[in-house]
Predict the 3D structure of the following.
Amino acid sequence: MMIEVEQHHEGESAGQPLQQIEEAFNNWRGGSIQELGALYSALQEKIECLPVMVRDEATEQLDEKFAKLTVALVGLDKMWQLESIEGWLQKATRDLCVEARERIAAEVTAHYEDAVAAGIGRGLHARMAHVCAMDDLGPPGKAQWKYQFAYLTQYEADALAKGKPILQRPLEKWFNCFSIVILVLVNAAYIFSVGFDSVNVPSICISLLVIYTLLDSQIPPRWLAKRFHRRENLLTLVLVMQCSIALAFMGTVFALAGTSWVSAVALGLTAISLVDDAALYLFYRGRIRRTYSVSA
Amino acid sequence: MYDDLMNLKGTLPTLILQVLAEEPRHGYSIAQVIKKRSKGVLDFREGALYPALHAQEARGFIESYELPDRGRVRRYYRLTSKGGKELANSRAIWKALSEAVDHILEGNEAREGA
């Protein structure tokens, strides 16, 4: 066996590979994945020949050398900051809704498995194939940034769920899109016909609430996907619905309670809700436009 | 040098449509075909491929379906007729753009040579 070692590593003593491994770790100060791959391949070569080279040594010394080698490999793992595919998915799909997380997990996991299999097929060690596959996927933070624009977050899914009782039947869904305009026109016609002094404001506002209650239905997923696949459309819809409901609520309370503290509280809460919705909408609208115009 | 290549507006979606125009593929296969045919120049982060695929699907340019593959279910993508029209349009735009850029670059080279 020693002859074989001498053939492969002429002029080296049994302790030299370990020394070289330690020196490689000590001297390495970062670099590209290709440099890491070269380092790992060099180490693999040393590791494979190590049992042959030290076979004639005492068992105790052999264990000591392998202990050192194990520590070295753990250190290499830390330097690579190896990420598991599960950890990558967890970071990349953070905040997304359940449906999006499941779909991305299924596709990316299959993608990762294919990449690892291809790497092993090219002769890479399994660990190196994993590193290459993860490197090809890229940083999970960047992927998460793109996923945020392509898929609904849980917050948005919840917001959309609030709007679900609005749009199901063809007539209702279009009626709701223009409900504010229709209601304003109806009320304007009513006020014009009876005169402003004779307007029964509470009955008008209560009628708005009744209309929304009557429109209690579900959004068909297919229609939702085709018509409202873009995030700004979804948020516009939700914003319009929330504003309509909030205005109706505000008007009702104001009209019924006059100028009492009840109406003041209702007005304050409604205003906060409207500002929050508007800010959310404007915030996402800007991000979406940038994303769609740059990379997707 | 080539880091920003895949950030050119519309590049990745067009490449996806072109690859899927030939045959239905899953995500990994699409990424490998693009990398292989560009000889490694268009080396993008594959994690970003799926949002782009989903965006194309949402626009109706491609559609997805699931197929069993080696004991697991994989999602395949294929081009729709709408996607075919979009691809033809994108190719025409890209051709016009690249010709225009070529003319400018060749003009610069000619001036530098003179």
About this structure: The longest helix of chain A spans residues 261-294. The mean pLDDT of chain A is 61.
